[in-house]
């Protein structure tokens, strides 16, 4: 019994000692956490100011030829000559293929002979008609006169028929020379010298594409179309009649030509909910080729508001635009915006901000809402890089860490 009591007492003493050690160990940690909470983390900020900014959107698209022509023969025969360089540039009227023309030259000569033969019978028929006309009533019947007149008409008709045959033969002869219908770039040939081709065959000899200018077919959502129309009717967007298009190539570089709206399909796709906008771009150096995937920045007008750089924003679970600001008491404040419009590398917001508000643009990974921070003035360079406000953009640029 005594041994059992001693064992219980020893266990109680050990438990008390362990509890005291635990309390002593937790006190320094708590004090350290309190000290860390009082330290303000430095963050880069930019002061916002209300101004007029372009309303833009970026649309995906694909390049298409301005004109495309599949070249097919209009007469049958053997290819005698191929006069172009595959993949080269050609001009309108340049000779592409020469089909053997000897049979067609013979047909032209035969048609000319038929005209001469038909014309030779006309004078005789005219003389015969005049003779019967004089003898009507004094030795020639009316029937004989009508027959002579019919014979003359038939002779003249045969002349016209022969002339039409000559025109047809000449057209066939001209078609033995296949020429370019417009300026462009020509593909490789599907037939070689010595191959036999047929009139209006289904297989094309080659294809010509006109690349200057060039079409860009852009895809836009019907939702954005409705939103744009609402903004225009409300007067929020001005100058939308002069829509400007700027092209971004596959390598990320901006194309040095500006496009103009050509047409848009008025039917929204039932499967994708999108509609097509076709834009015409000058392409003098053949930089853009058919089939290329590109992006186009579209300036839809201008709107007054505050520009939030995309690098300083994110989206919440409901899809709303969010950004971090420095509150009046120096703490992180998270704001959400129901409506926003793209404007180059920024989001354009019209509500929930006032002049002078400090938007946090760097150090976003190390802060949370309600945390005290120390604002450091920064600015955004033209290429979207965060730099110190007192140094030029070419100085020690520092891109913000990805959020």
Automatic annotation (TrEMBL):
Residues 68-208 form the Multidrug resistance protein MdtA-like barrel-sandwich hybrid domain. It holds the Pfam family RND-MFP_C. Residues 1-25 form the signal peptide. Residues 109-176 form the Multidrug resistance protein MdtA-like alpha-helical hairpin domain. One of its GO terms (molecular function) is efflux transmembrane transporter activity. Residues 309-365 form the Multidrug resistance protein MdtA-like C-terminal permuted SH3 domain. Keywords: Coiled coil, Signal. It comes from the Bacteria. Its main location: other. Residues 108-172 form a coiled coil. GO terms for biological process: response to antibiotic. GO terms for cellular component: cell envelope; plasma membrane. It is found in: Cell envelope. Residues 213-301 form the Multidrug resistance protein MdtA-like beta-barrel domain. InterPro entries: MdtA-like_b-barrel, MdtA-like_BSH, MdtA-like_C, MdtA-like_HH, RND_pump_MFP. Belongs to the membrane fusion protein (MFP) (TC 8.A.1) family. PANTHER family: ACRA/E-RELATED COMPONENT OF DRUG EFFLUX TRANSPORTER (PTHR30158), MULTIDRUG EFFLUX PUMP SUBUNIT ACRA-RELATED (PTHR30158:SF3). This is Probable protein secretion protein, HlyD family. It comes from Rhizobium etli (strain CIAT 652).
């Amino acid at each position: 019994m005594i041994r059992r009591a001693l064992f219980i007492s020893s266990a109680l003493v050990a438990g008390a000692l362990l509890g005291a050690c635990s309390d002593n160990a937790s006190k320094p940690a708590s004090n350290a956490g309190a000290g860390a909470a009082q330290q303000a983390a430095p963050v880069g900020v930019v002061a916002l100011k209300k101004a007029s900014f372009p309303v833009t959107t970026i649309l995906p698209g694909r390049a298409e030829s301005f004109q495309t022509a599949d070249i097919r023969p209009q007469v049958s025969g053997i290819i005698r000559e191929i006069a172009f360089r595959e993949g080269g540039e050609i001009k309108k009227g340049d000779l592409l293929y020469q089909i053997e023309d000897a049979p067609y030259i013979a047909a032209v000569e035969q048609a000319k002979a038929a005209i001469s033969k038909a014309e030779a019978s006309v004078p005789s028929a005219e003389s015969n008609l005049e003779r019967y006309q004089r003898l009507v009533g004094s030795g020639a019947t009316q029937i004989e006169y009508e027959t002579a007149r019919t014979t003359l008409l038939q002779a003249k008709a045969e002349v016209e028929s022969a002339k039409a045959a000559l025109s047809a033969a000449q057209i066939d002869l001209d078609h033995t020379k296949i020429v370019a219908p417009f300026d462009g770039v020509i593909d490789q040939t599907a037939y070689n010298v010595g191959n036999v081709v047929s009139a209006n065959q289904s297989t094309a000899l080659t294809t010509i594409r006109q690349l200057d200018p060039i079409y860009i077919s852009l895809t836009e959502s019907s939702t954005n179309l409705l939103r744009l129309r609402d903004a225009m009717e409300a007067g929020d967007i001005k100058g939308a009649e002069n829509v400007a298009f700027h092209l971004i190539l596959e390598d990320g570089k901006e194309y040095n030509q500006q496009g103009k709206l050509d047409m848009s399909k008025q039917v929204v796709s039932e499967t994708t909910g999108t509609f097509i906008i076709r834009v015409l771009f000058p392409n003098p150096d053949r930089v853009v080729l058919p089939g290329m995937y590109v992006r186009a920045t579209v300036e839809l007008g201008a709107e007054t508001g505050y520009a939030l750089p995309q690098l300083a924003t994110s989206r919440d679970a409901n899809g709303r635009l969010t950004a971090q600001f420095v509150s009046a008491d120096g703490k992180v404040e998270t704001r959400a915006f129901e409506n926003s419009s793209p404007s180059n590398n920024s989001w354009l917001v019209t509500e929930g901000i006032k002049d002078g508000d400090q938007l946090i643009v760097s150090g976003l990974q190390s802060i949370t809402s309600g945390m005290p921070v120390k604002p450091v003035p920064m600015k955004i360079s033209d290429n979207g890089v965060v730099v110190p406000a007192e140094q030029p953009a070419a100085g020690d640029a520092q891109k913000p860490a990805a959020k």
